[in-house]
Amino acid sequence: MDAPVDVVGRTALLLRAVAAAEPTGAGTAALARAAGLARPTAHRLLTSLEAEGLTERTPEHGHWVLGPELYLLGSAAAARYDVTAHAQPVVRRLALATGESAFFSARRGEETICLLREDGSFPLRSHVLHEGIRFPLGVASAGLAILAHLPEAQVRDFLARHDLTAEHGPAHAVRPLRTRIRRTRELGYAVNPGLLVEGSWGMGAAVFDAAGRPGWALSLTGIAQRFGPARRRELGALLLHEAHELSQAVQSAADVTPRARG
Predict the structure, then answer these.
(1) Does residue 8 come out as left (phi exceeding 0), alpha (psi in the -120 to 50 range) or beta?
(2) Could you tell me the pLDDT band of residue 131, with boundaries at 50, 70 and 90?
(3) 8 A C-beta contact, residue 176 and residue 164
(4) CA distances from 112 to 129, 159, 204 (A)
(5) What pTM was computed for the model?
(6) Structural domains in the chain, sorted by start
(7) Which of 8, 17, 139, 146 has the most other CB atoms within 10 Å of its CB?
(8) 60 phi, psi to nearest 5 deg
(9) Does the CA dihedral 257-252-242-114 come out positive or negative?
């Protein structure tokens, strides 16, 4: 008997591809490639999602974008999952204090997704990260910070199942990635020395939930000339401080919310 078609899984992949294409959206063919689906399958699913208000098409180019029903569903879930209200002032402080671009990213399964961006005063900026972009764990400083703080058994399992070199190059092979994981554990924060875009450096620190799991990360990006050894130590200490404060705020909110609902 043929294996059942995972319609829900395919739909989820497609919605993530649409989200990654925001705010301009993307055409059916591009979304099909991003989700690993045949174009007719992607078109059929996108049309069904449109009928439910989960996707829609832009009037200018006919690109697919997220629909209004997703906003309503997200608003309903925000009370349980949204920590951006706590993170927003932290990200702004980091941008103001450093002059660099500051970010807040969340772990979703085996990926990170950037939720917040705040640009600092320095006129030259890195544009590697933007709100909505996703990377596998271990890629970019936020994903490296989170991966390094997972239990070792989970790290081994992740590295055994994923070949990050296909999309992100030989610097993301297991051996060099293991070296960066070890260094991240030693320092407490992660450093990405221009591995995604040459000359664009990043640093990240994990933010922990009430169970002590790394669920989010704060990060900074900028040009290589502003990330010399002395300044990396300064920025690393700042990131760790702000990540600790945000972890405490998130954990306190998690303790209060169930009682408030009761």
Answers:
(1) alpha
(2) confident
(3) no
(4) 11, 16, 12
(5) 0.73
(6) 7-72 (1.10.10.10), 82-261 (3.30.450.40)
(7) 146
(8) -75, -50
(9) negative
